[in-house]
Amino acid sequence: MEKYQLALIARLKEQLELWLEAEQCPHTNPDRHSDQQSVATSDELYRFLHTIRGTSGTIGLSRISEEAASLMNALELQPQDEWPRSDLKQFLSPLVVLVQGEHAAAPVKVDAGKAGSNVKGSLLLVDDDEAILAYLTEELGRRGYGVTATTDPAIALRLVHTSNPDAMVLDLHLQMSSGIDIMLAAREQAAAVHTPVLMMSADMSPTAPVQALRLGADDYIVKPLHATELAARLERLLLRKRVAEELASVDSLTAVLNRTQLPELYREAVSATGNTGHDGFLLMFQLANLEQINLTWGEEAGNAALSGLAQCLSSRLSGESESELQAVVRYSGSRFIVLLRGMEKEAVQIYIERVKQRLSTFWPEGEDRGLITVVYTQMEPALEAANETLHGLLRLSRSAKEIAERPMNEQADKGCILEFGS
Q1: Which partner for 297 in 46, 195, 289, 301 could form a disulfide, CB atoms 3.0-4.6 Å apart?
Q2: CATH for 257-420, among 2.40.33.20, 1.20.1250.10, 3.40.50.300, 3.30.70.270?
């Protein structure tokens, strides 16, 4: 941690000399040389103390952090728009004494730097203080996070688009922007709509966290902060994100994937089919007498029948070769799609027969016989034909009862009916 402390001290000394030494006056009027000329605005002074309080406390310079906090409180009691050099010297003198007693080192440079193994997730870290960026990048990297850090809000927004981080850690108050501005702009990008944001700030006002959370931040942590606590909060946010993603992709009744996952699954299946040189197939299973079951036994029985069918289809996934079976998807109320890849046409009929043999195992006891229609079609290698393939399969499913009387090997429309149960 010492290297970050020394780098911060170097930056503090540089800024204090810039403000307090007459020959280095930075203000806009080059003719101002006396101690009565303004060298800093109240906003500039507040941002300086705000940054110092948060960074110094985080990297172990507690006395400097406490003094910066004290000066921030004093600044509220001593409001003035412009600060002449003489007033600023007197006001900052306690901080100057502390800083002059420390040894400095070369500043730490961070510009979209990367660290960490990305085992626990990828992070985008934005702060205008390079010392705290470097420190947190190293600390979070050691804890298994892949960290991309920058001081530039524009670069941060580009990284949201190109890197798609799992979470963002943003400083609330930045010199050129704010963490809230970055968060709102990032979430205009589709990929980042649900990306968790942890806001951090040395702002001690009670309204700061309230504003950040109301505008969409998922968590808020006050500087000075401990890297261990920050890592724990990120772990919780990422766990919550993973659970939400799983729930969003899974049908709540049957526990198989929902139809939102179908386009990506189709792309994967087409790709895998091309690699094996065999055909890929889509099968649609429909519980054709679901309405009758609901009317006779109630919706609870109908739900149990759907869950039983889903379990049966899913159990085949665990029992088949990984190269053959890819996924089961609940396509609509009573319809399920099974994706098969790398199979010969004859193997599809074998698969359907195996499903039929197992259906009674999953059928609720005491219910009417199950009536399930099955249709299937070969996948089109062109991804743009995917929607038409699915629509064609749905048309086949709707006419399955009409074509199911013919033997399987004579069915040009590839339809059949499976009956089972008591």
Answers
A1: 301
A2: 3.30.70.270
Cβ partners under 8 Å of residue 414, min gap 6 = 375, 376, 377, 396
pLDDT per residue over 182-237, tens digit each? 999 999 887 788 899 999 999 888 999 999 999 999 999 999 999 999 999 999 99
Record the tokens describing residue 143, joined without a space. Answer: 């804890």
Give the span between the Cα atoms of 314 and 303, in whole angstroms.
16
The CATH superfamily label for domain 113-244 reads: Response regulator (3.40.50.2300)
- Contact predicate 61/54, CB 8 Å: no
Q: Are 284 and 397 in contact (CB under 8 A)?
A: yes
d(CA 137, CA 406): 67
pTM for the full model? 0.61
* Contact (Cβ atoms closer than 8 angstroms) between residue 276 and residue 341: yes
- Report which secondary-structure segment, H or E, holds 300: helix 299-319
pLDDT at residue 332, as a whole number: 86
In words, the CATH class of domain 2-100 is: mainly alpha
38-43 contact pairs (CB < 8 A, 24+): 38/82, 38/83, 38/84, 39/83, 39/84, 39/85, 39/88, 40/82, 40/83, 40/88, 41/81, 41/82, 41/83, 42/75, 42/79, 42/80, 42/81, 42/82, 42/83
Do the beta carbons of residue 284 and residue 335 sit within 8 Å? yes
Q: Are strands 370-378 and 415-420 parallel, antiparallel or unpaired?
A: antiparallel
SS3 222: strand
Q: Whole-angstrom Cα distance, residue 126 to residue 152? A: 7
